[in-house]
What we know:
GMP Synthetase, Chain A, domain 3, phenylacetate-CoA ligase activity, eight-stranded mixed β-sheet, four-stranded antiparallel β-sheet
Amino acid sequence: MEIFDTAELWNRDRIEQTQLLRLKTTLGWARNCSFYRKRLDAVGISPDTLLHLDDIRHIPFTTKDDLRAQYPTNLLCVPQSEIVRMHCSSGTTGTPVAVCHTQNDINAWADLMARCMHMAGVRREDVFQNMSGYGLFTGGLGIHFGAERLGCMTIPAGAGNSRRQIKLIKDFRTTVLHILPSYALILGEHIREAGENPRDLPLRIALVGAEPYSAEFRARIEELFAMKVYNSYGLSEMNGPGVAFECLEQNGLHIWEDAYLAEIIDLDTGTPLPDGEVGELVMTTLCRRGMPILRYRTRDLTRFIKGMCPCGRVHRRIDRILGRSDDMFVIKGVNVYPLQIEQAIMTFQEVGQNYLILLENDGITDVLRVKVEIRDEFFVEDMRALQNLQKVIAQRLHDEILLTPRIELVENNSLPRTEGKAARVLDMRNKK
Length: 432
Ligand code: ADP
Ligand code: ZN
């Protein structure tokens, strides 16, 4: 195993000793804002009384609403003159949350991000094209600084504008991309429309994250471009990208435990779950001075993967994110995640790149409708073949979610698409 940082080689003891020390330091920093000082005093926790890592369970959770209520700068734990940058969440689910960083925070973040990229096989000789929106969104500057730290020639291409993206890839012989999963397939399509084969481009690796996608979706991107795709997870509250990343094994994402303390809890009771069980990821910063966050409820659902990773890194792995707890919808009493639907439909080779889940009510009962794009070469087939396909897709989904949806096959590229995070579910049940 080639490493970027010696912390990648730490064993469990070393990781936990460091976590305890850093957690105590973080509690000391957090007391510099009245929000955390009051909370910690209320439960009698201070750097001196916290003796074991498990004692963290006595600290109350921090929620997104807490962060919104402290907007814009009430959670600063250093004088504002120490802050060099602020970022916001992309606001996918409401009012944004602002996070402020000192110069050391920014440096530590760039180190973590460079460590992630290096783990996925990116090297200084690579040409890296960042297709993330720049600005407040952390996927821009966050990854940018990591790539520069690693020493890559870094192209801040920004989001969208496929024609320019393709030109940059060709002109500068880009080898590594950072791209949203939904946009990767759109970009591939544009390249094909221009009469070229995406597999002929010099691309070899893509860092893909910011929204949930299934293993089947990943396989499609890899196949389309003949490149390896590594899952990248992060959230603005925990800096942004660089929190957890896949290694060459592509089997779960290592969380950097020297920088974050991760827990997975039962959604309803808040108690920690054993490895392997799906719950909500809760995270604490261990290295952030400007604005520490304690026990943040990410609302992201995943599980710890049991056992050691063959790559040799001891930092724990989480499974790909199943979705946000608020993405889950309930239909006819069944809890469903968009990813379950994606997983099932993407196994059909006839299925194109995009799909849309519609929740409706026909006056009597709730109806789950799934619009599925079909590849051009299959759309010309006879009616009977298409009806049959409709039936088998519905059956496959029934096996997965125990409900029979109405499947509607639509032409390729006919569903709305965004260059930002994809909207997969449209709930129209109370809008009539
Ligand atoms: P917003 O919550 O407004 O989208 P962010 O830009 O901070 O704000 O996005 C972070 C969120 O994006 C995460 O909490 C998670 O829900 C989602 N996300 C990020 N990376 C991944 C990934 N690799 N897989 C699934 N979801 C992801
Ligand atoms: Zn590994």
